[in-house]
Amino acid sequence: MDLKRRDFLGLGVAAGVLALSDPEHVLARFAQKNEIGATFILWGYGADALEPSLQDMSKLGYHAFETFGHVIQEWEEKRGGFKELVQKHGVPIISAFCNTDVLDPSKTKDEVKKLVRWCELTKANGGKVIEYCPSGIKREGYDYKAHKQNLISSMNEYAKVVTDHGLVCALHPHTGTPIETEEEVYFVMENLDTRYMKFGPDVGQLEKGGGDPVKVVKDFLSLVEHVHLKDFSGGNDNGYLGYAPLGAGKVHLQEILTMLETRKGKMAGMVMFELDSDKKNKPKLTEFEAAKASRDYLSKMGYQFKV
Fold first, then answer.
1. Does any domain span residue 15?
2. pLDDT tens-place string over residues 109-162
3. How confident is the model over 116-125, as pLDDT tens digits?
């Protein structure tokens, strides 16, 4: 379209006035934004949840998805093929969530074998990142200092295995695991070999674990390769284990997202919407409604989806 000079100048003045009156809105609309994916656990934790999650993600326009390594393996080996299901719904995989033991040295050899298989499957299907999380433990009486030698050495070994398979390994601190509190996060991130182990925080988990997710993300921003974007409202009986659709909790999501924009184009992975599902308590929203509410929250901030 041809614009006369005075019209062009008029548009510039109008944009300037809008920027002065509502700068956050303008920045949200015109800044470069990361693409947003979604993890599948809102729909469940097993192989049966994969197809329903992909159906909803496709309708809502999420750019990519994450599932568990064992779910990929089950679809590949017992359900007719993982790649075929993914292609059917048109949402590509970006990452696989994988757990291994970090406290018992006698288990490391078998855990490496398991991790290798998940790496092979993830890469073969187009994934880029292993979102790595230590296996769950009983937290009562746990002292990371008593386990620090094997805690660090085993994770360094696992991260090198992932890297050797051409993938990025991103550490995911999680409640109910050996890396839950802010103190534990700082200890491991300051002692791991970050040539191999990068950072894949879940900001809702950090909040639930008593930490400050804004501070943690800021301090390790240069190592962030993948992110679970999750909100936390408190309690455990809302159908989401205390988490909430984006914007309905107390995590400072906008601050975190603004920081993550500086990692645009640098991360191997993505910013992934996530909301836990609860087997005991039914939430008020359906999975589609909760995923849509979170997408709409991000859309208002200027993030674009494939619909």
1. no
2. 999 999 999 999 999 999 999 999 999 999 999 999 999 999 999 999 999 999
3. 999 999 999 9
Instruction: Kindly list the distances between the CA atom of residue 233 and the CA atoms of 9, 240, 243, in Å, as whole numbers in the listed order.
Output: 46, 10, 6
**Do the Cβ atoms of 294 and 274 come closer than 8 Å?**
no
- Give yes or no for a contact between 38 and 58, defined as CB atoms under 8 angstroms apart: no
Angle, to 10 degrees, between the axis of helix 108-124 and the axis of helix 148-164? 30
Give the structural domain span for 206.
Answer: 34-300
**Domain count of the fold of the chain:** 1
Adjacent-strand bridge partners of 247: none
Helices marked H in 79-167: 82-89, 108-124, 148-164
In a domain, 103, yes or no: yes
If we measure between CA atoms, which residue out of 297, 244, 299, 306 comes closest to residue 275? 244
**pLDDT over 90 percentage in the chain:** 88
Domain of 71, CATH number, reads 3.20.20.150
Domain membership of residue 204 (yes or no) is yes
Rounded to an integer, what distance in angstroms lies between the CA atom of residue 296 and that of residue 301?
A: 9
Distance, in Å, from the CA atom of 160 to the CA atom of 247, rounded to the nearest integer, reads: 36
Query: Would you say residue 7 lies in a domain?
Result: no
